[in-house]
Amino acid sequence: MITWIKSGELVDPVQGVVEKADLIIERGKISKILPPGVFEDREHRLRVIDASGRLVIPGLVDMHVHLREPGHEYKETIETGGRAAVAGGVTALACMPNTIPPNDSRSVTEFVLEQSKRANLARVYPIAAITMGQKGETLTEFGDLKEAGAVAVSDDGFPVVNSEVMRRALEYANHQGLVVISHSEDISLSSAGMMHEGVVSTRIGLPGIPAASEEIMIFREISLARLTGCPVHIAHVSTAGSVELIRRAKDDRIPVTAETAPHYFSLDHNAVMGYDTNAKVKPPLRTKDDVFAIKKGLAEGVIDVIASDHAPHSPLEKELEFDKAAFGMIGLQTTLPLTLQLVREGILKLGEAIRKLSYNPASILEVSGGRLVEGVQADLALIDPEYEYILKKEDILSKSKNSPFIGKALRGRNEMTMVGGKIVWERNKAHSGR
Amino acid sequence: MKKFSHKDLLGMGQLSVDDIELILDTAESFKEISTRDIKKVPTLRGKSVVHFFYEPSTRTRTSFEMAAKRLSADTVSLSASGSSMVKGETLIDTARNLQAMNPDLIVLRHPSSGAPHLLAKEIKAGIINAGDGTNEHPTQALLDLFTIREKKGRIKGLKIAIIGDISHSRVARSNIIGLTKMGAEVTVSGPPTMIPVGIETLGVNVVCDPVEAVKKKDVVMLLRIQLERQSKVLFPGIREYASFFGLTGEMIKGAKNDVIVMHPGPMNRGVEISSEVADGPYSVILDQVTNGVAVRMALLYFLIGGYKK
Predict the structure, then answer these.
(1) Which CATH number fits the domain that encloses residue A106?
(2) Which residues form the domain of A186?
(3) Out of B90, B110, B113, whose CB is closest to A205?
(4) What is the pLDDT of residues A332-350, one digit of tens each?
(5) Is the CB of A276 inside 8 Å of chain B's CB atoms?
(6) What is the per-residue pLDDT for A433?
(7) Which of A43, A304, B134, B147 has its CA 20 to 30 A from that of B225?
(8) CB of A89 within 8 A of CB of A61?
(9) Least CB-CB distance to B173: which of A198, A205, A324?
């Protein structure tokens, strides 16, 4: 069957061009891209999708997601996370290894891939642990993990404290063709911290996590990347100082890439004011100045990627005293509208925004996706960028509902998601998967 | 007639100047009850108050118990060790169970900042924050305001120094908010490791040197150094703290002649305060305790809704 996506505004994140075009999809791939009015309908088995008034974008490639399976299936499974992903316009995601057991071996990587095949929703790329048990001591078998399907290594949630271990990880991962993703946190500085150390933590009496906790570790990663010449990717950048460090490293041509999450440019530490545990996240929500710097870093290309850091937690971890609650918030379904807000604010052009959501992360992980050109897999989303709505709990398809954006006004939403030419999600319709 | 329209007392931030004055005025009229031979009035007869203390407390707990009983309320007292918290029940579940027994008010002391805010969202009974983590201790601040007003005749324009571990002190936080709101000029002092970032945004001056901080002050308020709680790197040790930050008779000479010295208790004699000062003529430490009962009577009266009659 041939699919004709008709009259949409096609976004090319690499050329930065947005123009009306028709997409012809055959056998899961984009076979032709034509100006409107050129394609002639002579086929019997033709499915026409009217995309007028919609943007046609490459599906989001979310390189920072926690799917919680195996081990914490009550928070999220590969299937429920996959549903939330495709509803949010995400066609591929990389999932972090801090499961139980952690993904530090071929068997866990294969299990994740097996479960994602069964779910048959977004493409899932496992990220393996850097060290056995994420303990920061012994390297995992990068070669074996890569063969099994891992695309990167990270001890996300647990920084690699020992600098020698990190150095060797960078060198060996580079040899095996894996990127190392750093959760940059000096845990001796952040130890008891619950939120950003600043005027709000002082006002409401919560122990703080200083910006320096993140910046010290980013400085170390940059030094190690300089020493070894091996690439490092910095996860969830949240402070102005971090942006400056990465900017200088890039100026010095050190192989560093960086990501931030939508909450770091959409919220500041005032969101914690009423002890809302859904606003408890690591790194913590920072100051207005940091939010400004993150936006500037995105605009100037210092920050390459926007990823959700989707971190599902159940009421068991969140309906608690603030200091007892877990860190993290979900984000698969809010990344798109929050990023589109940057376009409306004039921080990013539409093409740049989509590039940070798709092409750049796909390039860093060396996976497919991020462009809609003839011959590529048809992984795409049809979005209505101006639709306004209030986010409701019922709209969230993730098993966990820990979002500080519930009840908030959002603008822009996904209407349809296609993975490999198959519609995996469409507003108000049920789909069994790809 | 002024009105008090809060369901809960979670922190000093929620109270207006009028609210505070109303509480202090009312406490003044309640204070006399404690001096009677029969120390009981029927104001809250038939009302029930749960005193829920997740942290050990002598002064605050006894003070609340006395206050409630002198107003004829029925009281139940729970501590963490005797509650089902030790059996793994969450705070919200414990509170919902208490709510199911329909108390009129819950007085909560808890080691987590924000715990009373969590309860207030969940349950119908009023909540009084009797100290939450390192956040606030509003009833202590109110009794301190009461004591200052009683001794000085006013709060506005007074120069007040608060000395100690400002970062981890809920008493300091509540007092800073309350005192600045009432127009006092507040200076905080202590080792820089105990002064939280951005404290000036709450409208206070920071003077780390306590000798300087005490100079020309109307009120000097000391905070308990929590020997058991502090991380080891905040200060080198008790001896060092006592010799550089402990309030001595010599230091207090720099203050105004009619200075009053306050301490929320329990004191570490010889650490943050010398016995000479604690027992000396400037000390109003025991007046604070006496006034605590009156202030808490006023709060129980307002929050249980006695004023509606």
Answers:
(1) 3.20.20.140
(2) 59-365
(3) B113
(4) 999 999 999 999 999 999 9
(5) no
(6) 57
(7) B147
(8) no
(9) A205
Min distance A268 CA to chain B CA atoms (Å)? 16
In chain A, whose CA is at the least distance from the CA of B135?
A205
Residue A115 in any domain: the answer is yes
pLDDT given for residue B184 in this prediction: 98
User: Which chain B residues contact residue A203 at CB under 8 A?
Assistant: 173, 201-202
HSE-CB at A24 with a 13 A cutoff on CA atoms is 16
pTM attached to this predicted model: 0.94
Tell me the C-alpha distance between A51 and A28, whole Å. 18
H helix or E strand, kind and range, residue B214 = helix B210-214
Residues B161/B189, Cβ–Cβ less than 8 Å:
yes
**Using only C-alpha atoms, what is the Rg of chain B?**
19
A94 assigned to some structural domain: yes
Please, are residues A133 and A162 in contact by the beta-carbon 8 Å criterion?
no
A245-258: b (≥16 Cβ within 10 Å) or e: bbbebbeeebbbbb
CB-side neighbour CA atoms (13 Å) of B167:
19
Sort out which chain A residues have CB atoms less than 8 A from B199's CB and list them. 202
**Catalytic residue chosen out of the listed positions A268, A309, A323, A379:** A309
Q: Closest partner residue to A203 among B118, B170, B202, by Cβ? A: B202
ipTM > 0.95?
A: no
Is A144 considered catalytic here?
no
Q: How far lies A183's CA from each of A49, A161, A259, B300, in Å?
A: 41, 10, 11, 49
Q: Does A204 contact B at CB distance below 8 Å? A: yes
Domain assignment present for residue A19? The answer is: no
pLDDT digits (tens, 9 = 90+) for B211-260: 999 999 999 999 998 776 656 678 888 899 999 999 999 999 999 999 99
Work out how many domains chain A is built from and give that number: 1
Q: Which of B298, B230, B301, B285 is nearest to B59 (CA)?
A: B285
Asked whether residue B142 carries a pLDDT value surpassing 70, the answer given is yes
Cβ pair B261, B282 in contact under 8 A: yes
Closest CA to A301 of A356, A221, A230: A356
Mean of pLDDT values over A36-49: 82
